[in-house]
Amino acid sequence: MVKPGLSAAVLLLLLGFLSVSSVNADTLLSAPLNVTIREIEVNSAVVTWEILEGDPVIGFAITQQKKDVRMLRFIQEVNTTTRSCALWDLDEDTEYIVHVQSISMGGSSPPSEPILFRTPKESEKLASKSPDEVTMEEVGQAAQLRAGELIIIVVVLIMWAVTAREV
Q1: pTM
Q2: How many whole angstroms separate alpha carbon 105 and alpha carbon 79?
Q3: Could you write out the three-class secondary structure of the chain?
Q4: Long-range contacts of 39-42 (CB under 8 A, 24+ apart)
Q5: What is the mean pLDDT of each run of 10 residues along the chain (167 residues)?
Q6: pLDDT in tens, 35-48
Q7: Cα-Cα end-to-end distance for the chain
Q8: Are 47 and 90 in contact (CB under 8 A)?
């Protein structure tokens, strides 16, 4: 025989469980969308993604794995609104699989759909660059060099002016 007080307690416990489970269902994050690999180089690439508006995201977790190899790299970024991540130290001519997950205070989303990409061979990258092509990296290095040379010249001129004045 069930006591009346006990059945009320069971009913309250059941209602509490249902309300907690419905709150948890509302706070589940969606997996990141439109995951894309960009700027694929011999040893690096950039993964980008989007999230559903309104998801309470505080960070992201990226998994990078060589295809057919069990070892993987796990990158976790929290307290960020960034929607991209650089993948570094990749091997040339190698296939990789990448997943992205959103992170909230309540946990992680399911992983995104897997993205498969291949890094090029060093020889392929060199062959794709024509002899007349100039990259932004090369331009940036030349500008930095000129700025450094200019600073040295200015410092030498100031020192020369100070010593010439003393004589």
Answers
A1: 0.59
A2: 11
A3: CCCHHHHHHHHHHHHHHHHHHHHHHHCCCCCCEEEEEECCCCCCEEEEEECCCCCCCCEEEEEEEECCCCCEEEEEEECCCCCEEEECCCCCCCEEEEEEEEEECCEECCCCCCEEEECCCHHHHHHHCCCCCCCHHHHHHHHHHHHHHHHHHHHHHHHHHHHHHHC
A4: 40/117, 40/118, 40/119, 40/120, 41/119, 41/120, 41/125, 42/90, 42/92, 42/119, 42/120, 42/121, 42/122, 42/125
A5: 46 38 55 95 95 91 91 88 92 95 93 95 70 51 60 76 74
A6: 999 999 999 999 99
A7: 113
A8: no
